[in-house]
Amino acid sequence: MGMMEGKAVLVTGAGRGVGRGIALAMAKAGAAVVVNDLGVALTGEGEESASPAEQVVEEIRALGGQAVANHDSVAEWDGAQAMVQAAIDSFGRIDAVVNNAGNLRDVIFHKMEPEDFRAVIDVHLMGSFHTSRAAAPFFKDQGSGAFVHMTSSTGLVGNFGQANYAAAKLGIVGMSKCIAIDMQRFGVRSNAVAPWAWTRMVSSIPTDTPEQQKRVEGLKKLDADKIGPFCAALCSDGGKDVTGQVFGVRNNEIYLFSQSRPIRTAHTAEGWTPETITERVFPQFANDFYPLHRSGDVFTWDPV
């Protein structure tokens, strides 16, 4: 008996990489899995094949598990409804949703077009909303359920050429926390996970400089299958008291991230003017300002 025995899970973007690893980990833990994947290019455009989801389904069935494929888009409200309904129709229930589907449109900000921004928001942020909202009534009625949303160190720390991706991924953190607050009384949990893994998405990172080449070589050591066991643990009954948190998984390391809280305050009885702010507040706060770190500046040690 695995920790997810008797439960049904929807995993989006599960045809490759991190999503595939999560779907397989859920199945190994005993869950029945809806394997969602569009089978499109990295940008989210142009259908490559509908086969990745089917291949993962076959892998799960070969393990003795239950799985069905779904090829709807998380960017569409009706598509998300169909994914959740597939779990109900196939397995009679839905117990967890893992929002993993993603795309990239990396462009330096002053060259980023509205479509570059919107395309990433639609899949990551709106997609996570669509699938979560589709499952929420079922979770409420049964008095249980778990959401796992994929965030990123790009949103939590920052990276070059990814303003669209960062906006989506940090937005997901805020959404996850508010879902946790709204649905706590119904026994529903919601957490965010930042995965480090060598996948199709990070394989698009440029290698034009020695520094970039060194970074990519480090990223190649990150195993996409390491994320799945943590997601299964979060969605299991063993994770019933864990909600509203932000985690990271990087090979054999698991992180708990801080959340935004005030760290300094400045007060005056007379009220502030632009002049007194620049004279007193900025210098007072300067020692605690965050530098313009990128993810790689913070996570500098080799993965273990």
UniProtKB/TrEMBL annotation:
Task: Tell me the domain of life.
Answer: Bacteria
Q: Which SMART domains does the record match to this protein? A: PKS_KR
Give the source species: Novosphingobium resinovorum
The entry's family comment says:
Belongs to the short-chain dehydrogenases/reductases (SDR) family.
Q: Which PROSITE patterns match?
A: ADH_SHORT
Q: What is this protein called?
A: 3-hydroxyacyl-CoA dehydrogenase
Q: Name one Pfam family in it.
A: adh_short
Tagged with keyword Oxidoreductase:
no
Does the keyword Zinc feature in the UniProt annotation?
Answer: no
Task: Read off the Gene3D superfamilies from this record.
Answer: NAD(P)-binding Rossmann-like Domain
Where the record annotates domain Ketoreductase, the positions are 7-201
Q: What keywords appear on the UniProt entry?
A: Plasmid
